[in-house]
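Q: I'm writing a short explainer about Lipoprotein-releasing system ATP-binding protein for a general audience and would like to include a description of its predicted shape. Could you first generate the structure from this sequence?
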Amino acid sequence: MNDPIIRMGGAIARRAAEPVLETVGLSRSFTQGGQTIEVLRGVELAIAPGEIVALLGPSGSGKSTLLQAVGLLEGGFSGSIRIAGEEVSKLDAHGRTVARRDYLGFVYQFHHLLPDFNATENVVLPQLVQGKMPVAAETRAKGLLTALGLGHRLTHRPSQLSGGEQQRVAVARALANQPPLVLADEPTGNLDEHTSEVVLAEFLRLVRGEGSAALIATHNERLALKMDRVVRLHEGRLQ
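A: Of course. Here's the predicted structure. Afterward I'll give you a sentence or two in plain language.
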């Protein structure tokens, strides 16, 4: 059997059975009103290349905090975080920026699209930041958007798109640079039930087609069961 293929910043590397994400002893605490609140308590998590994992837990369980840690968006954590084989938890600000650019794609509950740019341009921009040539970036953007059923909406701005369409653009943007790992925080939480199911199905189909791994935070048990594996966060620990 061939080794799994991991895409890193546009390059392709082969690694034998190495997790695309691995956390060891990941912890985070806050001091509030003279009390210490432990949000994450020694989280141990490994995600294989191409694996889609649902992160379940009620509001306040620490799901977003865990994603912020893995996404290198916030400091103050202890423990180890390895992404695509690289220890990233001790990187400086510039190193974290480069790691996010090369290794990660993000999808949030609210799409955070740039309002003055159309759908194609929103997906082109992160590719230009990574150094891709404009023509190749535009071809990639149009291909992803068309795969998500937005081939007829390529030149529409976010204000001209429905909520579900905006979130599809956000999904395409997250996958534009072929990240080895996609992080999603309640990606359909702002959509109605029917649209949530449709967008999630398209999201999962595209992630699998791209060969990326994903960690998707949700409180929806039914949607979580559509993924490859479910982990639960309870009182700061994974179960």
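A: For your explainer, you could say: The chain has one domain: 5-238.
Q: Perfect, that's easy to follow.
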